[in-house]
Amino acid sequence: MQKCLYLLCPTDCLEPIVNNTFHEENYFYYSLGNSFLIEENTIENIKQIVTTHCIEEISFILSNSNHIVKDALGTQDFVQMKGLSNLYYQITKQKK
Hints:
42% of the residues lie in helices and 17% in strands. The chain is α/β, with parallel strands linked by helices. The radius of gyration is 15 Å and the shape is globular. It starts with a strand and ends with a helix. The mean pLDDT is 88.
C-alpha cells in the first residue's frame, strides 16, 4: 500500500474526500491557504513525517473555492488574522 502525504488547507475540509478517493495510507500537513514558510523548521517537520512514515508521494491540494484565497482576492475580511497579511500580499501580488 502506497503512503502519501497531502498538503491541505484546513478550511477546505478535503481530508474525508482524499480518504474516500485515494485508498492509500494517507497523511496530512495543514496550513492556511495551503501556504507555509519554506523555512528550516517547516522543512524539518515535513522531512520527519516523510522519513518516519516512509512516504512515497507528496501532493499539494487546494480547493477551487478556498475561503482564504477567495478572501485574499476579495474583501480581505481575515487579513488581520495572525500570519495572513503576508500571505494575502503574496496572493494579490501573484494575481497581478
